[in-house]
Design brief:
With 399 residues, this protein is of the alpha+beta class. It has two domains: 216 residues, no CATH class; 102 residues, Immunoglobulin-like, CATH 2.60.40.3080. Helix content is 24%, strand content 20%. The chain contains nine helices and 17 strands. Strands 8-17-16-12-13 form a five-stranded antiparallel sheet, with no helix packed on it. It starts with a helix and ends with a strand. The N terminus is likely disordered.
């Protein structure tokens, strides 16, 4: 019991200490779209710490504790949201072990079966897709894909089903979780497709992957599940805790809109976590530079309103804004652009910084260029970007 009490205290610490997305975590993906966005997210989340398969047991009290009793396992194969689960497992003491049926013990369930990727590391022990579930139900699911089931051969005590798929495009044996956890599972599959886009997740006939590309029927189904079962408090808690333990996140829990932007119908839409730069109606771009910018600078990590633009078809975005150290300039024009000078002015128009020898002067579409603001006092400044065809000037807040 002392161990459980300690785990409860640590679990509370982790949830409080990691209850938000780390500052700057997604900066490298800001302003990107389609394949470029997918590649940027892959680079952000792929280099996580590798936890041993045995070590997952010790992670679950932090990632999968029930809200009503944090000594108990939140098992998606036995839980009945809004109702009474048929049974509950206690962390550590009830882990498998042997089982003869449901309510014997809980096990480590690879939502993406390990046989699909040949038991390869780091997928084989990636906490983001390995959930604690009833060992017997885990065994009945086996390595079958998830899908909607028509003719049922077996049903768990919470209503999860094994049987013949009725999902368009697939007619084989499938496992269907209850509706309350379909979105959770879908977002795990999107995570796996991005985190391991350079791996082969389709090494077995039952796999829905070809390399890391999902079969079209499964992708269509998972997008539907994602939209019907939106992100829950359980997922947010699990994502924060997993980040504290293996140091990466599931972007599709943090920003559900990424599903359509990478896999769906909005691949031409650029990713701005806090809205399109300059679209805040409280920020009047016609204000005098000395006026209040119209909103709390701490609430707007996106680009400032563009003050002047004498450039046809060229558009840059600056982030994070407000800035405390480095601000990044991204070229969103879709073409290579030569920057001839970067300048920073204060509100009185005094030149504080100029660089006429910008690194990589012919600036490709997705490249990023930083400016160091760490020595600037808090206040409002202007960044002037010179190109051979004109000038853009952006307002920047330093905090």
């Amino acid at each position: 019991m002392k161990r459980i009490a300690l785990l409860s205290i640590l679990s509370f610490y982790f949830l409080i200490g990691y209850a938000q997305i780390p500052e700057g975590y997604y900066d490298a993906a800001v302003g990107l779209k389609g394949d470029s966005l997918k590649e940027a997210l892959h680079k952000i989340i792929q280099n996580h710490d590798t936890i041993s398969y045995k070590g997952l047991w010790g992670c679950y009290p932090y990632t999968d504790a029930r809200l009503d009793d944090n000594t108990k396992v939140w098992d998606i194969y036995s839980d009945i949201p809004g109702g009474t689960p048929p049974y509950l497992y206690t962390f550590i003491t009830d882990q498998c072990g042997n089982y003869s049926g449901e309510n014997s013990c809980y096990n480590r369930e690879h939502l993406v079966p390990q046989s699909w990727f040949g038991d390869a590391s780091p997928m084989v022990s990636d906490l983001q897709h390995i959930y604690p579930t009833d060992g017997f139900v885990n065994n009945r699911r086996g390595n079958y894909p998830f899908a909607e089931v028509g003719s049922t051969t077996w049903t768990s005590r919470n209503g999860s089903k094994l049987g013949v798929s009725i999902t368009p495009g697939y007619s084989g044996t499938a496992f269907e979780p209850i509706d309350a956890f379909k979105g959770d599972i879908a977002r795990v599959f999107f995570y796996m497709a991005v985190c391991y886009m350079d791996k082969n997740l389709g090494q077995e006939g039952n796999s829905i992957f070809n390399g890391s590309t999902m079969d079209s029927w499964a992708l269509t189904m998972f997008i539907r599940w994602h939209n019907q079962d939106t992100v829950s408090q359980k997922e947010h808690i699990r994502n924060h805790a997993a980040d504290s333990l293996q140091h990466n996140r599931n972007p599709f829990i943090d920003y559900p809109e990424l599903v359509e932007m990478i896999f769906g119908s909005q691949k031409e839409k650029r990713f701005y976590p806090n809205g399109i730069p300059g679209d805040d109606p409280g920020d009047d771009p016609g204000d005098d530079p000395g006026d209040d910018p119209g909103d709390d600078p701490g609430d707007d990590p996106g680009d400032s309103t563009m003050v002047h633009n004498y450039v046809n078809e060229i558009h840059f975005v600056l982030y994070p804004n407000p800035v405390s150290d480095r601000i990044y300039i991204r070229n969103l024009s879709g073409q290579a652009v030569q920057i001839t000078a970067l300048s920073v002015f204060d509100l009185q128009g005094r030149l504080l910084y100029m660089d006429r020898q910008v690194n990589n002067p012919t600036w490709a579409h997705e490249n990023i260029l930083p400016i160091d603001f760490s020595t600037f006092k808090p206040g409002c400044y202007f960044v002037k970007i010179d190109t051979p065809t004109g000038v853009e000037t952006h307002k920047v807040m330093v905090r």
